[in-house]
Design a protein that fits this description.
The protein folds into three domains: 168 residues, P-loop containing nucleotide triphosphate hydrolases (Rossmann fold, 3-Layer(aba) Sandwich); 226 residues, P-loop containing nucleotide triphosphate hydrolases (Rossmann fold, 3-Layer(aba) Sandwich); 157 residues, Sec63 N-terminal domain-like fold (Orthogonal Bundle), CATH 1.10.3380.30. Helices cover 47% and strands 13% of the residues.
Length: 649
Amino acid sequence: MHYNTSEMIYDPFQQQAIDFIRYGHSVIVSAPTGAGKTAIAEYVITDCLSKNKNAVYTAPVKALSNQKYRDFKEIYGDKIGILTGDVTINPTAPILIMTTEIFRNKLLEKDGDLESYSWIIFDEIHYLDDHERGTVWEESLIFLPEHMKMLALSATIPNTDEFARWIQSIHKKPIKIVTEDSRPVPLHFFYQCQGEIVDNLAKVRKTGYSKNDLYRHYRGRMSGGYHHLKPNRPVALVKHLEQNERLPCIYFSFGRRRCEHLALEMARFDFLTDDERANIKAIYKSLCEKFDITGEKSASSLLSLVERGIAYHHAGMFPTLKEVVERLFTSRLIKVIFTTETFALGINMPARTVVFDELRKYHGTHFGSLKTRDFYQMAGRAGRRGIDLEGFVYSRVNPRYTTFDDLNRIIHGRREEVRSRFNTSYATTLNLYEKFGEKLYDIYPYSFHYFQEKEKNREKALELLRSKVKILKDLRYIEGGLLTEKGNFASKIHGYELSLAELYEKGMLEELSEIEIGILCLALVFEPRKGSERPRLSKKIRNLCEKTNSIVGGLEAREKKLRISPLSKNYYYFLAPCLEAWMNNEAFDDIMRHTDADAGEIIRYFRMAIQIMREIIDTPASQSLKYKVNNAIRLINRDVIDAEKQLRG
């Protein structure tokens, strides 16, 4: 098959990046959401295929990896494969899509099998400053093979030059920077404040932040109410959008329940003509049949909204139902979609208008204002290239929660710099020790953290690495300069390695049944939400819980003594009855009686547990244990849990 790239007409920044690529340079592209960065990635892929070369495409989250697989498969057919931990389809394909974790793991493995891949495309590379997972990007860049060239795609960040200088300093070859500040479809900003819709911050200040108003708000709060604040009604805002022909709209809200509540509140609207309604109902029915969710309650309840041109989309939904909603949205028949921020991440689904329900969100431990960069990542979904002359961004402003200074910073502030979050995991430390021995400390100066930080913070980072090696030696993961059997086991388990390796060494994994192995791995990955219901556990699972608590407690005591953070993760058995019922072949709707977790949450955690079990199969564990683990995977990975089934469909 011949892939032609010569007929495309590119924007100047796209053409500049492509010219650098043609000359064999690695390139970093920093541009706003919606500017057209994906076209450059497609050029690299098409060019590789036309020259019988191979490329890797990495994405920060599985949902984006899956989306890219579907998109690229339509263009390139069987030349595309995917590896995400959940899914392995066509793993020897010349173009492989994978999560950044999988790519990093391949770099550290002896038989990582990347010799034939000449390009790596890092999508959303600003994820490097994600607190939990940023280290993975940094390690991928540090250990990037000399033969691989790199295309890094990023949202607009102010320190692209610093980032490029770091990469050049460690790889000793030039990397070209392409920056684009403007969007092909300009954005126009509006605000709903005190029940009014205004089009600039001066009016917002006058409407909601005058001294008299703030005094009245304060007095209202002291007397137990905010009777002087006029409500910003979402219904009034959506009515305004409809009257001003500013639909379709992506309405961002930072809570799953809130998304559903808002969608139901909009059910008084009917945005579709009779022909459109007949069309969307037919498409919805066809997609539900295709994904085998016709009988699901959530699919039935969503239909009453869909036939009015309304939908919601969040991580608590069935993954297949989320995909149905995504496909409906691209058909342009959904006029208003209420969604959490994951909808903004790389998935190419623009609308005429974006609405922010509020300008703050929960940051894991506290509520805080949005980052400017995050705001523009989401706002960038407004304005469809080739369809809209401009995009519209509406922010609902509540002076109670957002100060005027914060509001001004979010809209007009400088985008936040990418900062290193370098903190090597135990598994990575073991892999590096196996490769470099005591010289592994010499690797830290290659990190972006070392490049960015002052001497004091560099010393802290190095001390943290030394402390991790000390624990690994004290617990006999490393002996005589070599990895022990337990060390080899832990080096294959990424993210949850120490407690699982301790159980392995004590022979406790061998004693577990297939169902108990599944429950253990699920408890390891599960994170309860605040207020989650604790289920009643069987005596066997309570005993397992005591043993795992004891092991994690011992590890945490060592870690606290050496000031290591984050601490080894606790096991949470909240979904144990749920999984046991599922492994005993109960229907998904029936297992929901055991938990207050959302369907999408359960599916995600079951899939994460399967990923841990697949990693156990790659360890030096006995054949009898691997046999039980394989059986456990088979019992869990059926119907809605089977991620491959969704993608193959």
